[in-house]
Structures are given as structure tokens and as C-alpha cells.
Design a protein that fits this description.
Order of helices and strands: EHEEEEEE
Mean pLDDT: 78
Radius of gyration: 14 Å
Structural class: mainly beta
Strand order of the largest sheet: 3-4-5
Strand content: 25-35%
Number of domains: 1
Shape: globular
Distance between the termini: 36 Å
Helix content: under 10%
Number of strands: 7
């Protein structure tokens, strides 16, 4: 089994959501697929600060779980504005898929490739 070099660009940290966190996501007013019980950090390898994974999106608000070795919390964010087009309903492959103010480089939706920070 080999390790793909693309995988090494993402932080390998993972979190297993507890019952209270899953209940919070299940209680959001959105028709979305069930939240996975285990999530991986979506930030770049070597990022500063807490780890982060998207839990669920409700309209323009994205609910991200953020964690460290000792604590976790769920926080509301909006999309990162990098490369986004104003007044467009749908996100496209060139938009950053992370939250506004995230640490590190931007991640676009096209195969989660990294793009230069704006």
C-alpha cells in the first residue's frame, strides 16, 4: 500500500463526534445527508491553531467542528470569499471550500487541490 502525495497536503487529524454533537447537527433545520460520526481535518498539513471539519451547511451558514487535543466546539461560519463570485447561488470548483478566516492556503472544490492564498 502506498501513500499518495496528494493526501500528504491535508492535515491527518481526525475527530469522532460525541452524542451531543451529533444531536446538534441532527437538530439543524436543513435537509442534508446524515453527518458522519468521524471527520477529518480539512486544513492544510502543518496549519496553525485548531483542526476543522465541515459538519453541515444551513443556507449561507456552515457549521464547522473545531478541535484540539483537549477540547472541541461547533462554530458557525460563512464561506471563504477567495475566488468567489458575488451574487452567485451555487459554489463552483474554483471557490475555496473552507470557512472565512481559515488558516493556511485556500482549497478549491476541484479535487481539493490547493490554490495560492489570496
Amino acid at each position: 500500500m502506498s501513500i499518495d502525495s496528494e493526501d500528504l497536503r491535508n492535515c491527518p487529524a481526525r475527530i469522532t463526534l460525541d452524542a451531543a454533537q451529533l444531536a446538534f447537527f441532527d437538530g439543524l433545520p436543513a435537509e442534508a445527508p446524515s453527518v458522519q460520526t468521524e471527520l477529518g481535518c480539512e486544513l492544510e498539513l502543518g496549519h496553525e491553531g485548531s483542526h476543522a471539519a465541515l459538519g453541515q451547511q444551513v443556507e449561507a451558514t456552515m457549521w464547522w467542528i473545531q478541535w484540539t487535543l483537549s477540547a472541541s466546539e461547533i462554530n458557525p461560519y460563512t464561506w471563504c470569499p477567495a475566488k468567489s463570485t458575488p451574487h452567485v447561488e451555487d459554489r463552483n470548483d474554483r471557490d475555496c471550500t473552507l470557512f472565512d478566516g481559515h488558516p493556511g492556503q485556500h482549497v478549491d472544490g476541484h479535487l481539493a487541490r490547493r490554490s495560492d492564498a489570496a
